[in-house]
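Hello Y.,

Per our agreement to keep a running log of every chain we model this quarter, I'm adding this entry. I've kept the format consistent with earlier entries: sequence first, then predicted structure.
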Amino acid sequence: MDGEVLNTHKKLTKWMDDLYQKKTATIISYNNLIPINQLRYSTLPIDNLESFNEKQPGVANFKERLTLEEWIGDEVYDNLVSWTEDFQLFQGLIIKDYEITISKEIAVNFIEIPKVNLKEKVYSKKFKPSTNMEVILISNNIFSVKCLSTLPFVKSNIKNYGDHVHILLKCERYEILLDENHIKPTKEFEQLIENALNSMRPLEALQSIFNEYGHLFPQKIILGRSL
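Predicted structure for the entry above:
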C-alpha cells in the first residue's frame, strides 16, 4: 500500500478508487480504419507488424495450450483478454444517420495474439474537419480515414466549417495493432457475403449485411484518456 496508513473508511475508499483509476483505460482512438468488406482479403494495409507463433486458448484455430506463464506474460497481454470483451474488439463500427455505434454481431475471430505496444504518450492535436461526417468521426474518436468516398454504403456530405477547429488532449497508454495475421472473418460473416454476391440483388444484400455487421473495422486501437 506504498506505506500509507489506511485507518479510516474514507482513506480506504479513496485508495481503492485511485487504484481502480490507474488500472482502467478507455478507447480514445480508432486508427487505420478499413471498409469491413476488406476483411475477406488476405492482405491488409499495415506494414511491418510482428507476428506470433503461439496460439491462444479460446480463439479460432486453437492447436496447442499455453502454460499459465506463457499466457499471462506481462500485464499488457493479461489485460488483452478483458479488453477484448470490454471494448468489443471483434465487432465492426456502424455508421447510420451520422451516428456511430458498435455492431452487436461478431465479424472476426482472433487467430493470433495481437501486438500491444506500451505508449505512455501525452500530447495535444488540432483537427479542422471539412464535412459533417468528419465531425461525427472525430467526435467518436475515429481517425485516419484518408478518403471517405472509398467507404461503401456511407454517405459523406461536403460542408465548409470555416474556422471550426477541434482541439484534443490525449493521454495514450496502450496501442493494439490488428493485421491479417491476427484476425480472420467468422464463417458466418463469410457465408453471408458469399450468399449476397450470388443473390439477384447483391448491392442491396451487401448493404443489409454491412448495416448489421458494420461499415468500418479498426486496424489500430489506442487505449487511454482524452479531453
